[in-house]
Amino acid sequence: MTLKNYVHGAFVPAWNGIVRPFYNPADNSQLGEVAESSLEDVDKAILAARVAFDEGPWPRTPAQERAARLFKLADLIESRAEEFAEMDTRNCGKPLRESRFDVSDAAACFRYYAGLATKPQGQTFEVGDPNIICQTVREPIGVCGQIIPWNFPLLMAAWKLAPGLAAGNCCILKPSELTPLSASLLFELIDEVGFPPGVVQLVYGLGSPIGARLAESPLVDKIAFTGGGDTGRKILAAAASNFKKVSLELGGKSPNIVFADSDHDHALEYALFAIFAGQGQVCSAGSRLLLERSLADSFLPRLAAAAEKIVVGPGMDDATEMGPLITRAHQKKVLNHIQSACCEGAELLTGGSAYNDHRSIGNYVQPTIFVGVKPSMRIVQEEIFGPVLTVQLFDTEDEAVHIANDTTYGLAAGVFTKDGAKAQRVIRRLRAGITWINTYHPTFNEAPWGGYKQSGMGRELGTYGYEAYTEVKQINQCINPQPLDWFRSAP
């Protein structure tokens, strides 16, 4: 299997003919090869998108027609749902049941933005001059480069493409080179739907040079990126070349606060789900458990015992509850973080290593929990992006808030308590863009997604995500033209 780029309405190999292998993280077997694009490939895609936007019909296509194509795409995704789910599980390792949810959400995302495309977008203002009608309209930005990560291959493609296309933009998607499989099927369906050439394109390849070229090109009007902070900084700097619009959804080190007056069984289940869903390779993972001190003696042994019972194995196995990490290199990185924490004096409550059994052929790491950590430790401050949980104890509400906000990140946060007033007080004080009370991780296409501080800029999803792909134009029309008589000396 060799996956090709999709440029100007056709599937084409990389200009230089180079391909890159991609693998199944459950056993590191090769799944196929994917085009290793060069600058020539991305430049062709950029030019095709530029022409399609400036001269083609898509930005001027009625919203109902744009919506019809997105509705059709959503239907096609649902018709191949199991195939998509199996692709993402084989390629990124997550359990099949998680992939099935992702596919359902992806189809719903295209359907949501198809519906939003036809809804009112502008405003009319009452201004001081009765002869002027003042209004605003929203117009597409132009050519949009969209760079997505490997942890949600299909879903992240939907989050980027759906609002961009619904608003009338021309989009160039660059998936992770590690997980190209479901993108290939998505673009087969896009080709079947029949978008005009150059409107929606797929270019595989490394972040450098492909993503870098999208970020720096003066022919690209917007860049949308989901991934790590270091890459986000490079993209932001490159985008400054032509002041292109930028949306960044970056990392997190999200706190999950459990008060003593919570439902302990409920809180324990969500403490596990917050960090071990997706193998912890989730930007919004609840990787810091903040536990009221009076709970520690009873809660922590139960938490450790429950973590040790998590079924870890290949995602295609129906019994699996947590799969492998994405690559051998990432597994090593996570294990190095664990070793570093032990060296810094953190106490390992459970887990902490790879597996020495039949799972050693894959990239597995045990569900890992640390206690006795200090705020300054790397394990507390740095995003690990793996199944590693730190536990910090607090005595008061103020202390919990202080600990929760004590990182450079601000993506997500959770609070567990039966006291509704306390829940609202604490949530309002947390510097995080996505928050939950007595739950963790539910995500909705209708609601904005994004973070504070170094967790990014801008928002995806909901009406916020649609508006991020539009420019606002002010239109003033005089309905009763009169002589201005401003320059009275003029004839």
Summarize, please.
By secondary structure, the chain is α/β, with parallel strands linked by helices. It contains 15 helices and 23 strands.
Please tell me about this protein's structure.
The chain has 491 residues and is α/β, with parallel strands linked by helices. It has 2 domains: 2-250 and 455-476, 3-Layer(aba) Sandwich (Aldehyde Dehydrogenase, Chain A, domain 1), CATH 3.40.605; 255-437, 3-Layer(aba) Sandwich (Aldehyde Dehydrogenase, Chain A, domain 2), CATH 3.40.309. The chain is 38% helix and 21% strand. It contains 15 helices and 23 strands. The protein has helices at 39-55, 63-79, 81-92, 96-117, 153-166, 181-193, 207-216, 229-239, 264-276, 296-308, 328-344, 378-381, 397-405, 420-429, 462-467, and strands at residues 2-3, 5-7, 10-12, 19-24, 29-35, 123-125, 132-140, 143-147, 170-174, 200-202, 222-226, 245-249, 255-258, 288-292, 347-350, 368-371, 388-394, 409-410, 412-416, 434-437, 452-453, 456-457, 470-478. The strands form 6 sheets. It has a 7-stranded mixed β-sheet, with helices on both faces. Strand 11, helix 8 and strand 12 (245-249) form a beta-alpha-beta unit. Helix 2 packs antiparallel against helix 4, helix 7 (207-216) runs parallel beside helix 8 (229-239) and helix 9 packs across helix 10 (296-308). The longest helix has 22 residues, at 96-117. The chain is globular and about 90 Å long. The protein starts with a strand and ends in a 13-residue tail after the last strand. The model has no long low-confidence stretch (mean pLDDT 97).
